[in-house]
Amino acid sequence: MDNIHSVSGDDFDGVRVPLVEEEEERLGIQAADETAHQISHDPWYQVGFVLTTGVNSAYVLGYSGSVMVPLGWIAGTTGLLLAAALSLYANVLLARLHEIGGKRHIRYRDLAGHIYGRKIYALTWALQYVNLFMINTGYIILAGQALKATFVIYRDDAALKLPYCIAIAGLVCALFAFGIPHLSALRVWLGFSTFLSLVYIITAFVLSLRDGMSTPHRDYHIPGSHTDKIFTTIGSVASLVFAYNTGMLPEIQATVKPPVIKNMEKALWFQFTVGVLPLYAVTFMGYWAYGSSTSSYLLNSVKGPFWVKTMANIAAFLQTVIALHIFASPMYEYLDTEYGKGKGHAFSFLNLSFRVLVRGGYLTVNTLVAALFPFLGDFMSLTGALSTFPLTFVLANHMYLKAKKNKLSATRKAWHWLNVVGFSCLAVAAAVAALRLIVVDSKTYHLFADL
User: Fold this and answer.
1) Where is it localised (predicted)?
2) Long-range contacts of 431-435 (CB under 8 A, 24+ apart)
């Protein structure tokens, strides 16, 4: 246990937690590597809320347009339910690999490196970096859209363009990142996040219901030519898996108290039962109300009192700031562990200035990319294709095969290999479709487009 390095809320260097330490020693488990962030500290329900915060972030306001419109009622509904079941299965597999070889593997790349070696360690880290970078870029686009939508409610004169809103959003996200040293420190902010999620989800649901009841006819045809439909359908499949998966499950699991696997499975069941209900409610209601004309940001479609729409957009903006911090935390942990001093109070001048410099630089790059290519649906598809499929489905199934090969029946081995091959093919097809969508949109809209 000598290499566990956890922190208290007030001390970046921190102290070890005696009860957690005793439990892990009893189980013969050690953390695989040192970290400047806090581990083995959070109850399962806090981890469950971390996962649910990611699922019900403001991204849910885009699924009516990015998933249901290209797929329609039957394929869209079936796809959302099937993707949830497959995602739960894959995440449980991954959670059960957290403690192998007598160690807790607190990072995705550490787990892959333990099973495969150094080359796959580097590949996994690259895939995860791409995944989290693009998710964070999407969050900044979302936050900018929420600000722009708020402005348009009162002044539709294009004085405040989307790139300006994205720049403001990036600045606010950076200020929040400076003040939250590690993932476990979110604590009370998860409560605020849940409340903010309910504000924009309930608002979007109620206003969509009202609009749908007052509109006698909606068009649900799938738009586009035959070729366009093929590519948008494949791209939407990538968005389906993007909706449920974090790409950083071992990092989140590292924060949970022992027994780690049992508690993580509780958190996952919470995410995929109670946690997905708001997502379904707003996605299906939005599509029912507006059909194939549903906006990629649902609050742009709804009609209602100005103050209600303003409240929902501001809630979406603020919740996005919190959710982005979750998906940026693996990068922050890496930078803090490798380059940060990690000594003394979390808000000492040295530690705070390090966060301002390093996290500020990271989010500046995110913000620049978000302003250059503000095509949110395309980002969801490309992220799902390039990283969510490989990390959550392909790698999880293959790692489970490698780790448990002597304990699996021939039937179970065949099942896991089917998942590996099938999801690899889907990942390639989805990546091609997503890149095509970005190329098409880049021709339609100029850089720094005011969408």
Assistant:
1) Membrane
2) 431/238, 431/382, 431/385, 431/386, 432/234, 433/230, 433/231, 433/232, 433/234, 433/235, 433/238, 433/381, 433/385, 434/235, 434/238, 434/378, 434/381, 434/382, 434/384, 434/385, 434/386, 435/382
Q: What is the CA radius of gyration of the chain?
A: 22
Largest CA distance in the chain: 67
Asked if residue 364 has pLDDT above 70, the reply is yes
Three-state secondary-structure class, residue 217: coil
Instruction: Kindly state whether residue 20 falls inside one of the protein's structural domains.
Output: no
Q: Indicate the SS3 state at residue 11.
A: strand
The full length of the chain comes to 451
CA distance 181 to 37: 8
Is the separation of the CB atoms in 101 and 339 below 8 Å?
no
DSSP 307-364: HHHHHHHHHHHHHHHHHHHHHHHHHHHHHHHHH----SBTTSHHHHHHHHHHHHHHHH
Show the domain range for 354: 40-444
Determine the Cα–Cα distance for residues 170 and 195; give it in Å rounded to an integer. Answer: 22
Q: What is the CATH number of the domain that holds 124?
A: 1.20.1740.10
Q: What is the tally of structural domains in the chain?
A: 1
The pLDDT value recorded for residue 413 is: 93
Q: Between the CA of residue 9 and those of 15, 260, 377, what are the distances in Å?
A: 10, 21, 37
Q: In whole angstroms, give the CA distance from residue 423 to residue 11.
A: 43
Amino acid at 176: F
Q: pTM for the whole thing?
A: 0.83
208 located within any domain: yes
What residues form DSSP beta bridges with 42? 256
Instruction: List C-alpha distances in Å: 149 to 122, 198, 244, 284, 317.
Output: 40, 18, 26, 22, 10
pLDDT of residue 209: 96
Please state the rounded mean pLDDT for residues 227-244.
82
- The amino acid that residue 338 corresponds to is E
Strands 30-31 and 103-104: parallel
Examine residue 280 and state whether it is found in any structural domain, yes or no.
yes
Confirm whether 413 is domain-assigned.
Answer: yes
Q: How far apart are CA 50 and CA 192, in angstroms?
A: 12
pLDDT value for 297: 87
- Cα separation, 279 vs 286, in Å, equals 11
